Amino acid sequence: MWNKLPIAAFLLMAGMAQAQQTLVLGTATPGGGFPVYGAAFAETLNAQEPKLRIEPRNTKGSTENVPMLEANQLDIALVAGELATAALARPGTPHRIVAAMYASPGMFIVKGDSPIHSIADLKGKPVVLGTQGSGVTVLGRNVLEALEIKVEAITLEKAADGPPMLLDGRAAAIWGAGVGWPAFSSIAKGGGRLIGPSADEIRQILTKQRTLQAVTLPANSYPGQPAPLQSVGSWSFVFAAVNLSEENGYLLARAIHRAEAALAKQLEQARETTMANTLAAAPRTDLIHPGVLRYMKEAGFIR
Fold this sequence. Notes:
Layout: H1 7-19, E1 21-26, H2 33-48, E2 52-57, H3 62-70, E3 76-79, H4 81-89, E4 96-103, E5 106-110, E6 126-131, H5 135-147, E7 152-156, H6 162-167, E8 173-177, H7 182-189, E9 193-195, H8 199-208, E10 213-217, E11 229-233, E12 235-240, H9 246-258, H10 260-266, H11 275-281, H12 290-299
Parallel strand pairs: 1-2, 1-3, 6-7, 6-8
Antiparallel strand pairs: 3-12, 4-12, 5-8, 5-9, 10-11
Helix pairs in contact: 2-9, 4-5, 5-8, 9-12
C-alpha cells in the first residue's frame, strides 16, 4: 500500500505519527468512578486533539497518583478532592491543575429494607469506606471523624468488591461520592437508599474540616433519588506531572474546552469538567498549569 501513496501524502502521515505524543492518565482501581471517568475523558479528548493520545491506566487511586506524578511516572492523573486539596496546600507544592473534574458530595448507600436511616445509625456497624488508596475513602473517614461516629471501617483492594458485601450483609452501608459512582448506580437500581448528613451535621463537619465545602448531589443522579441531596465534599482535579510541558498543557486545555459538550453527553458527572469551572475551582490561578493558563487567556477566560 505504501508504494502507491503519493510522496507528499506519505510524508504528511509520517509527520503526524511523529508529532503525536502519548500521555498516560492515572485513574484508580476497576469498579470505581475514576476509571469510568478516565475512559470517557481519554476517548473524547483523543477525538479532539490529533497531536495527543491519552491512555488511561488503572492505579491504586489518588494516594498513589500523587507521588507517581511527582516522580513523573504518570503524565496526568485524577486526584480526589481531599487529597487534591492537601497536595495543593503544601508549601512549594509542585502540583498543577489541568482541569477540574467535578465536585464530589459524599453519601452512604444502604439496602432499601435497611433499618438505617441516618449516619448516626451506622455507629458500630461494618461500613465500606472504599479502596485503600482512594481520596473518597479519606473523605469518608473525615466525615465520620467530624461527627464523632465510630464504625467498623472496611477498606477494599478493588472498588467493585463493595456492592456484594452490602447485598450479602457483610456491610451495613457503602460510602461513595459524586454523580455516576458505579457502586451506587448498581445498588440504587435494586432499590438502595442514599443517606447524607443533615443540615446540623453539615455545619458540624464544615466547622471541623475546613478544607471541605457544602455541595449538592443533583436530583435524579441515581435511580430512586427524585430530590437533590445536600452534603459535603470538594473538587476532584486532573493534575499534571511535574515535567508536563507547557505545550502539552495548552493542547490538553484546548481539547478539554472543545470536548465539553461531548464529554457531558457521554458521562453525567463530566458536565462539570469545563474550563470555566477549572478557573473557579482552583484555589489560586498560579496553581493552574502554565499551558492551561495560556489557553485560558487566549480563549478569554482570563483578561
